[in-house]
TrEMBL record:
Record-given protein name: UPF0102 protein F4695_001311
Xref: InterPro entries: Restrct_endonuc-II-like (IPR011335), tRNA_endonuc-like_dom_sf (IPR011856), UPF0102_YraN-like (IPR003509)
UniProt KW keywords: Endonuclease, Hydrolase, Nuclease
GO molecular-function terms, A-Z: endonuclease activity; nucleic acid binding
Top-rank lineage group of the source organism: Bacteria
Lineage start: Bacteria, Pseudomonadati, Pseudomonadota, Alphaproteobacteria, Hyphomicrobiales
Family the UniProt entry places it in: Belongs to the UPF0102 family.
Hydrolase as UniProt keyword: yes
Organism whose genome encodes this protein: Rhizobium soli
């Protein structure tokens, strides 16, 4: 019983850290001139951490809080990429103003004690 409580506490802590990282990444994109369109956008095919726009470009961002940049990049598996692409297709289909927009898939690594690292066109 105690072990299950410990696992639950770790899971809640990781989820909290992930949510904070998403807010940090969103603030970072705002400072870079992007407009945040959605945070934790859920579809039946999966969730997109951030959707942002700058002029005629919409970016779909996966946010990873890890100890190193490589760990963050490695954490976005092929299956995750496929899920994010499918969810982004649904999002684009539902937007009337999406025609003519370019799209890109980025990763933002949130690292302890450092500014976030933005990997553009990561997948």
């Amino acid at each position: 019983m105690a072990q299950r409580d410990e696992i639950g506490a770790r899971r809640r802590k990781a989820e909290r850290r992930g949510h904070i990282s998403e807010y940090v990444a969103a603030a970072y994109l705002l400072l870079k001139g992007y407009r945040i369109l959605a945070l934790r956008h859920r579809t039946k095919l999966g969730e997109i951490d951030l959707i942002a726009r700058k002029r005629d470009l919409v970016i779909f961002v996966e946010v990873k809080a890890r100890r190193s940049e490589m760990q963050a990049l490695d954490a976005v598996s092929y299956a995750s990429q496929k899920r994010i692409r499918a969810a982004s297709d649904l999002w684009l289909q539902k937007r009337k103003d999406a025609s003519g927009l370019s799209q890109r898939y980025d990763i933002i690594a949130v690292l302890p004690g450092r500014f976030p690292r933005h990997f553009q066109d990561a997948f």
